[in-house]
Structure formats: C-alpha cells, structure tokens
Amino acid sequence: MALCAEIKNLSVSFHGRKAVSQVSAELPAEGISVLLGRSGSGKTTFLRALNRLNETFQGYEGSGKVCLSLGGKMKDIYSADQLTPTDLRRKVGMVFQIPNPLPMSIRRNIMLPLQLIPGFNRSKAEDRMETALKTTGLWEEVKDRLDTPANRFSGGQQQRLCLARTLALEPEILLLDEPTASLDKKSSELIEDYLISLKNRYSMVMVSHNIRQALKLGSFFIFLREGKIVTAISKKELPEGKEAEKIMSDLL
Ligand SMILES: Nc1ncnc2c1ncn2[C@@H]1O[C@H](COP(=O)(O)OP(=O)(O)OP(=O)(O)O)[C@@H](O)[C@H]1O
Ligand SMILES: [Mg+2]
Questions:
Q1: Domains held by the chain: number
Q2: How much is the pLDDT for 1?
Q3: Which residues contact 32 (CB under 8 A, 6 or more apart)?
Q4: Are the CB atoms for 41 and 8 separated by under 8 Å?
Q5: Which CATH number do you get for residue 129?
Q6: Contact assessment for residue 26 and residue 5, using Cβ atoms and an 8 Å cutoff
Q7: Pocket of ligand 1 contains residue 93 by CB under 6 Å
C-alpha cells in the first residue's frame, strides 16, 4: 500500500503537558484518512504535526519522526536539510475549523499567498485562482465580485474560499481540521461533496467529530484517546451501514 505519511513515536507537549504521546501510524496515500476522538484527545495536534504548525505555539516541545510522501519521495519533514517549514506548508495545505479568510477581497485572498512564491507570474496566478475557485464551486458565485471583501460572503462560501486558497498553492497533501464544524447542514454537505471530488487528486487527512461524515468521506480511521492511538481501522474492515456507525461510536 502506498503511504502519504509514516509517523514514528510522535510526542508533542505544550508547557510540559502531553497532547500527543508516542504515536506511530501509517496513513495511506489514497483516499481520506480521518482522525476521530473526543475533545482534547489530540486530533488537531496530530494534524498540525504534519505541517509543523505545532512549533509556532508557545511552550511547544516535540519528538519522534514524521515522513511525508512529497514529490514522489518519503521526506523527513523535521530534518533541516529536507525542506523549510514554509515550503512544507505550501505542499501540505491546511483548512481550519473556522473559516479564516484574510480581511480583504476574494481576489487578494488567493493572490496574496501566490505572490509570496518565488517566480510569481500574475497571469499564471490568475489562472490558478480561477481553477481553484471552480474546483470549490465558487467561480460562478463570485466571478463578478472578485474585489468584494471575503467577509461579505456566507460562512460556507468563506470556507470554500479557504479551500480554494489552499488549492491554488497546488499542495500535494491536504489537512482538514473539522472543516464543516461551523457550517449549517447544507453548506457542510456541499463541502463534503467537493472533498469527495478531490479524493483522487490529493492525499487528505481530516479531523471529524461526526461519524456519519467520517464514514461518508473516509477510507481509513484513526481513533485517538488522551493523545494515544487506540485503534486504526480501514473502511474495508467495517461492515455496512448502521453496524459500522455503532462500532465507530463505541470506539470514541
Ligand atoms: N497551542 C496550544 N497550547 C497549549 N495547549 C494546547 C495547544 N494546542 C493543544 N493544546 C492541548 O493539547 C491537548 C490536545 O488538544 P487538541 O487541540 O489537539 O485536541 P482535539 O482532539 O483537537 O480537541 P477538539 O476536538 O476540542 O478540537 C489539549 O489538552 C489542549 O489543551
Ligand atoms: Mg481540534
């Protein structure tokens, strides 16, 4: 099985308190891996270990090894000579629980991160913006309002913008931290459908609180409890329908 991530003995603590403790896991390259567990079980911390975001917080201490499949090779992302955190975060894009558009227009939200890439070319960047907005179904909704501030759009539209902003950077891996948690049912379902449509293009690792959503989107599930993995199970090993939901909720 091709892997997108190999994690060995990962521990993360903040101010001396363990958030993730001696975790080892292998995440498949294909499909969506879903992290599940109760509040405070370490899901977000685990996800942030995959793009080195934990180290931007005060009191961080980490150990262990994280290798990601990038450019066709397994790379040790914490090794200084492999790639910088900035390069890593372009290749490993992240979408957060609460939509976090920049306080500027739709266009600037997507163009600004692209402008920071060496060799920036405006017309290519405009093409990438259009493609990304089409991929998240926003283009028809915003094409005549590209210079309107992002905060005038609905929560669901803002979250699709955040996904488009990440996709415009052409990542290889997508990290999604409860991307529908702040949205209504209809907007959530729309995002879920776009994520399913992206499954074959990116390796994805997603945190979800919602078993129905996890089963709909995911093909591999990791259950965390108090910073440790209690079970990792692939969808193929689960029965169909309600029975799978019951097994999953018992594991939470
Ligand atoms: N930046 C931080 N500074 C200090 N402590 C943190 C930080 N991030 C996480 N923690 C702590 O690490 C533990 C795990 O938190 P984490 O956010 O990873 O859990 P979670 O499973 O994502 O929870 P939730 O479902 O509520 O989002 C918690 O005890 C939390 O308080
Ligand atoms: Mg979290």
A1: 1
A2: 82
A3: 195, 199, 204, 205, 206, 217, 218, 219, 220
A4: no
A5: 3.40.50.300
A6: yes
A7: no
Which DSSP letter does residue 82 get? T
Q: Residue 205's domain spans which residues?
A: 3-251
Report pLDDT for 10.
98
Instruction: For residue 8, list its beta bridge partners.
Output: 65
- pLDDT in the model for residue 80: 77
Choose one of 10, 14, 229 to mutate for the ligand 1 pocket test, by most ligand atoms within 8 angstroms of C-beta: 14
Count of CB atoms situated within 10 Å of the CB of 6: 16
Count of CB atoms situated within 10 Å of the CB of 123? 7
Joined together, the tokens standing for residue 24 give 């080892």
Q: Is residue 2 classed as helix, strand or coil in its secondary structure?
A: coil
Tokens at 32, concatenated: 């969506």
* Residue carrying structure tokens 């089963």: 215
> Which residue(s) pair with 60 in the sheet?
14
Q: Which of 45, 213, 228, 229 to mutate to test the pocket of ligand 1 (most atoms within 8 A of CB)?
A: 45
Q: Which pLDDT score is estimated for 49?
A: 98
Question: What pTM was computed for the model?
Answer: 0.96
Q: What tens digit of pLDDT does each residue of 69-127 get?
A: 999 999 999 997 888 999 999 999 999 999 999 999 999 999 999 999 999 999 999 99
Give yes or no for residue 222 CB within 6 A of ligand 1: no
